[in-house]
Design a protein that fits this description.
Order of helices and strands: HHHHHHHHHEEHHH
CATH topology of the largest domain: Four Helix Bundle (Hemerythrin (Met), subunit A)
Helix content: over 70%
Number of strands: 2
Number of domains: 4
CATH class of the largest domain: Mainly Alpha
CATH superfamily of the largest domain: Alpha-catenin/vinculin-like
Length: 501
């Protein structure tokens, strides 16, 4: 029975700990389920921000490549139609080589980043670009050779072939840009608006550059502007105006004021510093001149306008990069925050469990063990946690009162057991006496002469011996006054005289 009680105590303790552990695991599981969504969402946001950041960096490289190739295309086209001295073209050749090299570096970085994405659509767009590279490099070699000789020795069909191939090459890069921009649009609305600003700026550059190249070549040719080229310039002016309107529309709702300010500055310089020259040259080019200033001066103003467009593009690129970096940093911080919160809350739950285990479960188990030891009559047990100022301390003090009461009860039980034993002994003695008394009760066969009594064996024995054997009584012989008077008259008289009889 005591073993069963002890085992029951142990099982209760184990069950309580098991319950606490099960509850902890359940709470941790539910807590994990509740935060895993937030963590996964933060991870997804980080991955998306990282992907958008990569796409934005790649698109910036592609924009840079397109810008430089447009400069290269336009300047080569101008120089190939220039009849001036070859020595004066050295600056143009250096400009072309620098723009080409910068464009190629930017394109190589972009393609390297995109190849890692391994998307079919992107891979196809990259293949179109790489397939065109051999022809572009072949034309560049021919152009480099023709730029070193006089106009009369240059290939007459080269400017047109160069312009067409470079335009297709640039269009392929812009097609890849469009694919990337669509991917960006699907992932981030703000980046999408910035990307639209870049596309409009690129379109503005694509419209302004050919216009300048046509007018610059017309100045050099000193021939009237062909009607189809005049119509093209009119169309390009419409495109330019529309692109400015689009840029203003796209930049208006942006919280960042840097882009609207840069756009306002671009528009001011373009319309005040370039358009007056362009309009004057255009009106005179319809009849073939004469022009108030030469092609280098006009080209200088045109290049400054294109550089202002490039500067605005740089502003958009910078703002977009800062935004993408901030989103990436924010998503990274969110992951760290979510992970920290998860770790902190899990640690808090574990600390609560340890607190409950060491401050509640273990003390209760100790007090319970003390109760069962008391139940096994181990009265020397020390009740633990008796000085704690909490509910467990109150329980321990109650157990201590129970221990004192149990000790007192045990003393009383021992006294009662002793009294009971004494009572049993007394009852036994009384019963024996009663039995003996019963033996002496009834008719005794006694001789009428000698007064001997017949025992159970049929023999006669003196009355003293019979009673001695059948009771605890013993005899002390004396003589009664009658017998003394009869048998000892003299002694009788003396004793009577003394008053002893």
């Amino acid at each position: 029975m005591e073993y069963e009680k002890n085992n029951y105590s142990t099982n209760k303790s184990i069950n309580l700990k098991t319950f606490i552990i099960s509850t902890l695991i359940t709470v941790l599981f539910l807590h994990f389920i509740s935060i895993i969504g937030h963590i996964m969402n933060s991870v997804d946001n980080y991955r998306q921000a990282k992907h958008v950041f990569m796409l934005n960096e790649t698109s910036d490289d592609l924009y840079k490549a397109v810008g430089n190739f447009c400069f290269e295309r336009g300047r080569v086209n101008v120089v190939l139609n220039d009849a001036g001295p070859v020595k004066k073209m050295e600056g143009n050749r250096a400009f072309i080589i620098a723009r080409r090299a910068e464009g190629e570096r930017a394109l190589a970085r972009a393609l390297s980043s995109l190849r890692a994405a391994k998307k079919m659509v992107i891979s196809e767009a990259i293949s179109r670009i790489t397939d065109q590279m051999p022809e572009i490099n072949r034309l560049r070699s021919i152009v480099s050779a023709d730029l070193a000789v006089h106009l009369n020795k240059r290939r007459r069909d080269l400017p047109r072939a160069w312009f067409m191939e470079m335009t297709k090459y640039i269009d392929s890069i812009e097609s890849l840009l469009g694919t990337i921009s669509q991917d960006i649009n699907d992932r981030d609305g703000i980046i999408s608006r910035y990307s639209a600003l870049k596309r409009r700026t690129l379109s503005l550059r694509d419209a302004a550059g050919p216009e300048m190249s046509i007018l610059s070549a017309t100045i050099l040719s000193r021939a009237p502007l062909k009607p189809e080229l005049a119509d093209k310039i009119t169309g390009l002016q419409t495109v330019i105006q529309n692109q400015f309107n689009e840029l203003k529309f796209l930049s208006r709702p942006l919280g960042n004021t840097q882009i609207p300010r840069a756009l306002k500055e671009l528009e001011r310089k373009y319309y005040k510093q370039y358009i007056p020259y362009m309009k004057k040259i255009y009106s005179l080019s319809l009849r073939g001149g004469p022009y108030p200033y030469g092609q280098p001066e006009f080209l200088e103003h045109g290049v400054k306008a294109l550089e202002e467009i490039a500067s605005f593009m740089d502003t958009v690129v910078e703002v977009t990069r800062n935004y993408a970096e901030s989103k990436l940093s924010e998503s990274r911080r969110n992951i760290i925050l979510q992970a920290s919160l998860a770790a902190g809350s899990s640690a808090m739950i574990l600390l609560i469990f340890l607190f409950i285990n060491y401050r509640v479960v273990n003390p209760i188990s100790q007090v319970t063990s003390a109760v069962f030891r008391l139940a096994r009559k181990e009265h020397d047990v020390e009740v633990p946690n008796i000085n704690e100022e909490n509910e467990i301390g109150e329980m321990a003090r109650a157990v201590d009162v129970f221990r004192e009461t149990a000790l007192e009860l045990d003393k009383n039980v021992i006294a009662l057991e002793k009294a009971s034993a004494e009572r049993e002994e007394l009852i036994k003695e009384l019963q024996e006496t009663l039995n003996e008394i019963e033996t002496l009760r009834g008719i005794l066969p006694i001789c009428s002469f000698c007064k001997n009594i017949r025992n159970d064996e049929g023999y006669y024995e003196e009355i003293e011996s019979y009673i001695k054997h059948h009771s605890k009584a013993d005899f002390s012989h004396t003589i009664c006054p009658v017998c003394m008077k009869k048998h000892y008259p003299e002694e009788y008289k003396i004793l009577k005289k003394k008053g002893k009889i």
